[in-house]
Request: fold
Amino acid sequence: MDVFAEYLAGIDNPEHRARMEEVLGWVANKYPHLEPKIAWNQPMFTDHGTYIIGFSVAKHHLAVAPEKEGMDHFSDQIKQAGHDHTKQLVRFKWDNPVDFSLLEKMIEFNIFDKADCSTFWRK
Reply:
């Protein structure tokens, strides 16, 4: 998790920093084979050099980006859970608990779906 230390230190709101640290720690502990890294000024996790999941902090939410394919695959579940979203990311509002169940499904989908992917992004 040292790779995220500078990023986390740059989050001004202590509650947002703690939440981001919790989420990043959860991913790192649950999926120890994923490589934590900072790219495009965002914390993310990769598997054999391919993107799996990325995160960013906004004023009202923690954004989770599983790539468009992940968003498409979980579109109904995201809507049913009541999460605000775009075509590229899910917004977990700061005043709600993190939806670790959905996060787990998105990560595992990408690990499985990109098992043979040899590029960073899907083509």
In short: Residues 2-113 form a domain with the Aspartate Aminotransferase, domain 1 fold (CATH 3.90.1150.200). Residues 90 and 114 are 20 Å apart (CA to CA). Helices lie at 5-9, 14-30, 67-73, 75-80, 100-113.
